[in-house]
Design a protein that fits this description.
With 285 residues, the protein is an all-alpha fold. The chain has one domain. Helices cover 67% and strands 0% of the residues. It is built from 14 helices and no strands. Helix 5 runs parallel beside helix 9. The longest helix is centred in the last third of the chain and has 22 residues. The radius of gyration is 20 Å and the shape is globular. The relative contact order is 0.16. The mean pLDDT is 88.
Amino acid sequence: MGLVALVLLAWQAARIPLEGTVETSVAHAQSVRRLEHALGLDVENSVIRFGATAPFDGILEWMYTGIHTPALFGFLAAACVYAPERYTRLRTIFVVSFLPALLAIGLYPLAPPHWLPELGFGLAPRQDELAGSIETLIHNSTAAIASQHFGFAVFIAAASLWLAPRSRIAWATLAYPALVFVVIVGTGNHYVLDCIVGLLTFVFAAAVAVLLHGRREPRPTNAPATREVVSISFGFMMIAWGLVSLQLISPRGWSNAVPVLVLAGGIAAVLVPRLSAKEPLVESG
């Protein structure tokens, strides 16, 4: 999980110098809108209208910042414990998926939908506003072209069915990509085409994983009890949510009370099944 965190931090840092200009990224946004219209994929208006109505507006905004990282950590932790012999392949797919995404972001800077007034939002920021904003120091504002949020969601659903095709929980994950689509489009952060590009980055990564690991699947090991997998998965979800929710600017404020409690609960959920098990849970390195 430490490796996953480092990869995500590297992904955020690598995107920053690839940010494009406001003029270029808005022009690309108009091109994407025309292409989607030609292909019959321009559904942003209806999804954004849905996302702008109460109480869904607040719910979707919270989901956009609050569910993706915990879901990713929870799934990868569960996969690591449940099927360590298959986890290395999934880890390869996860890491490699960022490479084509970075290439797309660098070659085609794209303004998000919430920069377009015709979609019901305000005007795009001026170039001096974008360059002078503290947000640009830690965020690429023109990186909409590859929606890794959607790619992660499809990755989680497909990998869950690959790991446990008879599990009801695995089949339930098919609803997650649909939820993420509504969240990222309804909040004006991505276009439909971005979701397709994000999906293709994982298709490319899966092909690379086949080349590196081969088509033959490793022999499965004895999986731990379901309650242990669920406990560790939810534990890492809580840890991830607690960490990303901490207010580092005012660390002593009451706003950190809930994240700290969630973080402590997540650590306990991860440690309890390990301490109570007769034998250590098997994990891949």
